[in-house]
Amino acid sequence: LKLQHNGRYRCRVQRSSRQSLWDESEPVTVIVHGVPLSGVSLSVQPPGGQVALGNPLVLSCAVAMGTGPLSFSWQQEGLGHTIGTGPCLEVLHIGDNDSGRCQCRVSDGDSMAESPILNVTVLAERDRWAE
């Protein structure tokens, strides 16, 4: 069911095919309720959000409960614009400017929920040797 399936429904049965006699049930009202968005979570590869300069970074956003269709947007603090629009965000070659706080926002058209904030740290070559 989808939210637009609200309405009044009845069952109609043909009693006799020869005489075109029909029986109808009493109408019933169907109200479809959406499930509010909740449990938005983030996973990241490499774990912890620490990635070496030039390497890939993959962020995934998941929703525990909610009625679709869902739309996703990725935000990075300080940029002021969306950096991605799907449940996964893949950065093939992480750059110096990719460090920062990231978050996934999910909308079902009626409400919006946010993931926890993830701090992405880009490690320069010298940082990797210090580990």
From TrEMBL:
Domain Ig-like positions: 27-121
InterPro entries tied to this protein: Ig-like_dom, Ig-like_dom_sf, Ig-like_fold, Ig_sub
SUPFAM superfamilies per record: Immunoglobulin
Domain of life: Eukaryota
Protein name as catalogued: FCRL2 protein
Organism: Rhabdornis inornatus
Gene: Fcrl2
